[in-house]
Amino acid sequence: MTSLNRQTANVSPAPTERVLQFGGGNFLRGFADWIIEVYNRQNEQQLGVVVANNSDREIYRKWREQDGLYHVLTKGIKDGELVDRHDLITNISRVLGLDRDWGTFLQTAENPTMRYVISNTTEAGIRFSPDDKVDDAPPAEFPAKLTRWLHRRYEHFDGAEERACVILPMELIVDNGTVLRDKVLDYARHWGLPEGFGRWVTESCVFCNTLVDRIVPGVGKEETTAAEEAVGYNDAAITQGEPYHLLAIEAPAAVRKELPLDRLGLNIVYTDDLTPYRRSKVSVLNGAHTTMVPVGFLCGRETVRETLEDKLTGAYVRGAVFEEILPTLDLPGVDLQQFARDVLDRFRNPFIHHQLLSISLNSVSKFRERVLPTILAYHEQRGEWPPRLVLTLAALIRFYRGDHQDGDIPLRDDAWAIEFLQSSWTEHDGSMETLARRVLGWERAWGRDLSGYDGLHRMLANYLALIERQGMPAAVAHSNIS
Question: Domain Mannitol dehydrogenase C-terminal spans what residues (predicted)?
Answer without folding.
Answer: 273-454
